[in-house]
Write a structure and sequence with these properties.
The protein is of the alpha+beta class. It is built from 4 helices and 10 strands, in the order E-H-E-E-H-E-E-E-H-E-H-E-E-E.
Length: 204
């Protein structure tokens, strides 16, 4: 079995811009009151993407059929310029578990893409609607630990999120969305590597 997902990758220049922000944010977290009370697991820059659908365990024999289903969806989907100018946390800033970078201006475009992909893959047995709101976002970090759930740790995380929001508000990051990709997620020593199984240009 393969572990797969569908995503829109970010351009190299966009990943480089995010990497610059991440370096500043990490230093801010280390200098501030986060200390040992909060553990943030930062996503490697090369893994940054917009997740469209997480398929999970996938039989290898289904890959050609998934590709056949995704191709027409990509062909009829516009290829917009994404503007990442927002940041936040899921499920809430008060109790963050995931820190994200967002492109809210393209949420209608992204929502349509997500729903079209879900509909295309449903006949193959994939039930992908988890009931959560659809957000045009890139996961930057996961909150691994907040010791004791104490207010000081929550306040420190809130301060870091504030820095993220101000940074991208002042210097948004652009990325052209040019393709839809079916990825395999592979466990490797030291982390996870994504391998493209099939790619589909947006807009035909």
């Amino acid at each position: 079995m393969l572990r797969t997902f569908v995503a829109v990758p970010l351009e190299e220049a966009a990943r480089a811009g995010i990497a610059e922000h991440l370096a500043v944010w990490r230093r801010a977290g280390q200098r501030g009151s986060l200390g040992p009370t909060v553990a943030l697991r930062w996503v490697p820059v090369e893994n940054l993407h917009l997740t469209v659908a997480f398929l999970g365990a996938t039989a290898e024999r289904l890959v050609p059929r998934i590709a056949e289903a995704l191709s027409p969806v990509a062909a009829r989907t516009a290829a917009p310029e994404l503007r990442f100018d927002a940041a936040g946390a899921f499920p809430t800033a008060a109790r963050p578990r995931v820190v994200w970078l967002g492109a809210p201006a393209e949420e209608r475009w992204f929502g349509t893409l997500v729903r079209d992909v879900r509909a295309a893959l449903a006949p193959l047995g994939f039930t992908l609607d988890d009931g959560r709101p659809i957000r045009t976002h890139v996961t930057l970090a996961r909150v691994g630990r907040v010791v004791g759930e104490e207010p000081a740790a929550r306040l420190a995380l809130g301060e870091l999120l504030g820095r993220l929001e101000r940074a991208v508000g002042e210097a948004p990051i652009g990325s052209h969305a040019d393709r839809l990709v079916l990825y395999e997620s592979r466990q490797v020593p030291g982390g996870v590597r994504y391998a493209a199984l099939a790619e589909f240009p947006l807009g035909g």
